[in-house]
Design brief:
single chain, 287 residues, alpha/beta, Rossmann fold, 2 domains, 9-stranded mixed sheet, two-stranded antiparallel ribbon
Length: 287
């Protein structure tokens, strides 16, 4: 489905109804907005895990402008591929669809968008989950992490990908480095998504915003519950980056879970433990 938001035509999909059955009649369920990683990917790779929450929430997936199927209108204009715009899109998307007090889950790049949204609209969300993400990025940390997991070959492939990203560099990274993201092979049902490497290059090469951003200022003003999820062996957004986020949040709203034996996206390596944690967090946030 498509919706016009801030001059862009954004694609979204949903699973589950907003109203559920209660003992005394219909009861509203919270809306869980799931933001995919990348940039340049779409939401499809998250469906195999997050669809399961449709019994306790209306699950809404959004392809960020410039990503996946959200390529129309100004969504294809690189000057709008910024964290500020992506963050504002979340707020406007909710307004267009009538979503109130959403629980926003951001994975990887989606977590950066979620932080931007939260900083720019600090009263809007009902709760936030920052999963395998960062408020600041350091290339040396990424390269050292890949070398620790895959040796010199992995470090070289990662360096070429994050600094040049030619078609050959991307192919090498997908072959050598992507298997190091997680200890568990990705579910085949999560494959088959759309990729736009142009938006990745725009955001993630040395001149891109990912290496200049510092999303921490403003997070201290948040008052809603925030869960920070991180994987013990995540090579892209190591636990230290999650700690950076956690440290600036108010003590009374923050929870951090570092799951042992997991990498980039704890739900991929520890789906049962992650599901339990998220169900508890959603129930608590929904009151």
């Amino acid at each position: 489905m498509y919706v016009d938001v801030n001059g862009a035509r954004l694609f979204f999909d949903s699973v589950g109804a907003h109203l559920g059955f209660g003992e005394t009649g219909p009861r509203p369920k919270p809306t869980l907005i799931v933001l995919h990683g990348g940039p340049g990917f779409d939401h499809w790779g998250l469906r195999h895990f997050f669809d399961r929450f449709a019994d306790i929430a209306q699950v809404v997936y959004l392809d960020h402008r410039g990503n996946g199927r959200s390529l129309g209108g100004k969504g294809g204009d690189p000057t709008t591929w910024t964290l500020a715009q992506w963050g504002d899109d979340i707020r406007s998307f909710c307004e267009v669809l009538g979503i109130e007090r959403p629980i926003v889950f951001g994975q990887s790049f989606g977590g950066m968008v979620a932080q931007s949204y939260a900083r720019r609209h600090p009263q809007h969300a009902g709760a936030l989950v920052f999963s395998s993400t960062a408020a600041t990025m350091r290339l040396d940390d990424v390269l050292e992490a890949f070398e620790a997991l895959g040796g010199a070959e992995a470090r070289h492939a990662a360096a070429q990908f994050w600094t040049r990203a030619s078609d050959d560099d991307i192919a090498a990274y997908l072959k050598i480095c992507m298997p190091l993201y997680n200890k568990t092979a990705r579910d085949p049902a999560s494959q088959g998504g759309l990729f736009n490497w142009t938006v990745f290059r725009h955001f993630s090469l040395p001149a891109g915003e990912i290496w200049k951003m510092d999303l921490r200022p403003g997070l201290e003003a948040l008052a809603m519950p925030v869960l920070v999820l991180t994987g013990e062996t995540d090579p892209v957004t190591p636990p230290a980056r999650a700690q950076d986020i956690f440290d600036v949040l108010r003590p009374d709203i923050r929870t951090m879970l570092q799951m042992p034996g997991t990498g980039h996206g704890t739900f991929r390596d520890a789906p049962d433990a992650t599901e339990r944690a998220l169900r508890s967090f959603i129930a608590g946030a929904a009151g």
